[in-house]
Amino acid sequence: MTLDQIIDATSVMPVMVVDRPEDAVPLARALVEGGIRVLEITLRTAAGLDAVKAIRRDVPDAIVGVGTIATPAQLEASIAAGAQFGVSPGTTPTLLKAIVDSKLPFFPGVATTTEVMQVLEGGLTVMKFFPAVAAGGVKMLESFRGPFPQVRFCPTGGINAQNAPDFFKLPNVVCVGGSWLTPKDRVAAGNWADITRLAKEAAALKP
Ligand SMILES: O=C(O)C(=O)C[C@H](O)[C@H](O)COP(=O)(O)O
């Protein structure tokens, strides 16, 4: 899959923190049922890569990416687990080189103009803007448009159903990411119906 195909399939990208491996497949199914197919599984928990493998195997309609990739070794492990794309919170020169070499569709994280320029040096023009609200939110992305009209962003961090529409109004926003679709208490309780409801609401946010 190409990065553009992934972008076309997404509007809100759920940032999933999977604590219990057995939650991965039902959680992914609940999101897909609600119309959210492009999923980011973070490496914040030990279960992350096993969750990717399980969802790739059992939820064929999902498009599965790995988030929180911070090192080339994590990138390699993500590809081995079946990641269809990657996401990082920030971008070091070492990680950028590994991303470019791997050819894996990727949303490298940036929060400043210098970081945007460093990622552009690697030839990548789609970036995760993180932490979106704390780093300047809508105003910052509007300001990025002047010097970087070719760059498209997936803002993540502090975004929810209330403020997401403000981001979708920006021409340089292709999707938004967030953890609000997968509240910890709902996942812990196995309340998949509620997750499907949140996914349906989120899927309707992008005009
Ligand atoms: O773990 C990662 O890979 C990250 O980069 C951070 C997440 O994308 C944000 O923490 C999600 O933000 P919230 O929606 O505000 O919870």
From TrEMBL:
Functional pathway: Carbohydrate acid metabolism; 2-dehydro-3-deoxy-D-gluconate degradation; D-glyceraldehyde 3-phosphate and pyruvate from 2-dehydro-3-deoxy-D-gluconate: step 2/2
Keyword Lyase appears in the UniProt entry: yes
CDD domains in the cross-refs: KDPG_aldolase
EC annotation from Swiss-Prot or TrEMBL: 4.1.2.14
Catalytic reactions on record: 2-dehydro-3-deoxy-6-phospho-D-gluconate = D-glyceraldehyde 3-phosphate + pyruvate
Alphabetized InterPro entries for the sequence: Aldlse_KDPG_KHG, Aldolase_TIM, KDPG/KHG_AS_1, KDPG/KHG_AS_2
Pfam families the record matches: Aldolase
Enzyme class of the recorded protein, top EC level: lyase
Molecular function (Gene Ontology), one example: 2-dehydro-3-deoxy-phosphogluconate aldolase activity
Organism domain of life: Bacteria
Keywords, comma-separated and alphabetical: Carbohydrate metabolism, Lyase, Schiff base
Subunit structure: Homotrimer.
Family: Belongs to the KHG/KDPG aldolase family.
Protein name (Swiss-Prot/TrEMBL): 2-dehydro-3-deoxy-phosphogluconate aldolase
Organism: Methylococcus geothermalis
